Amino acid sequence: MAVTRRNEKYDAIVRAARAVFGRVGYLTASIDLIASEAGVSTRTIYNHFDNKEHLFAEVLLASSRQVAEVHEAMIERRLTNVTDLPAALVALAEEWNRPQPEFDDHFAMSRRMGAERAHFPEKIYQAWREAGPWRVQRALAERFEELRDQGLLDVPDAGFAAHLFSVMIAEVRDYPKVVHAFLYGYLPRSCFECPGR
Amino acid sequence: MAVTRRNEKYDAIVRAARAVFGRVGYLTASIDLIASEAGVSTRTIYNHFDNKEHLFAEVLLASSRQVAEVHEAMIERRLTNVTDLPAALVALAEEWNRPQPEFDDHFAMSRRMGAERAHFPEKIYQAWREAGPWRVQRALAERFEELRDQGLLDVPDAGFAAHLFSVMIAEVRDYPKVVHAFLYGYLPRSCFECPGR
DNA sequence: GCAAAATTACAACGAACGTTTTACATAGTT
DNA sequence: AACTATGTAAAACGTTCGTTGTAATTTTGC
Question: Where is the HTH tetR-type domain (chains A, B) (predicted)?
């Protein structure tokens, strides 16, 4: 696709919109501000997008797919041919949450989704869930299943464990401790022989 | 304190504000809507509160303290004289997240705090953190320490474990599985004798 | 060079909002 | 009944916002 002025403007709008939506949220993000940061006029934004909501949806879904692909590759790389599982999980968590300028805007948008979902159609929210979080969790669950088959993990429900792990590393920042808890739990070891287990 | 018309109106405003802030968020919650649900005029709201932000802060902090007291008592009740720890933790998680009409509005407000914090002064956010989540987590950490002293938990860092547990039960809804993972982890049991542990 | 496409700049529109003003009504107290 | 405190209803004010219209300008393609 040739670089044309029209494409340039489109890209600039998408980029600026992602930054502004991520920074101040859907409602507070004004078309004026987005236009200013994109270096275009508001009229131009409306030449490319029907309205604010369509802009939001397009920006959100495009970056969700992009980020999901990166995360899937990351999971593949980190959890294949594992020799030291704790270290691999810590490395995955660290890489997963490492600040990356090109994705920071997207993550900022994502972190707001729960609170802002009532402000746009539910199908946008669901499309994001499908394109982003769920897709990545499925990839993680598949890896967990393989690790289970290799005897490295004891996960009766890999999907649940994947969901739990992603919640833990998203919300709690000390990854060595998180991974340790994920693998070993907090029950004293002598209790593994206790009745009820 | 005698029930006066003024107190009645104040209470009605606070109650309606909590519901509206929780339902649609700080920005979208209009004074008109709150007044309508409270059954007062907007003028009356300004007779009681300087502005929208003060209303929000007062509503938020009052209910945070109230809910924290309930949670502290709950933790005390559920994690004292424990005979079956897994069952006690599951019961705590279930009670913690059980729908309670009188607190639903508060929890809805709380769930939005992360995304909405940029819209009001940071000190409101921090005051909420102190009056609510942190306070409850400290109570939970103290309980975990006692359970550790009783040999029922192996928690080197009770504060961390408390934080992790509260994140887990807040974000993941299958409490038996969550508690199982929290206590036992996902490492196969034979690996507890592996090197590197 | 010319026509078409795209953009800019700006004004305009209608709506929504937080807040204040104003006049009148209601409630409580003495 | 008189006075004070409080509430109501509605208008007004200033601001912000999403969106559209319009004329002029710039860029692109032939």
Answer: 7-67
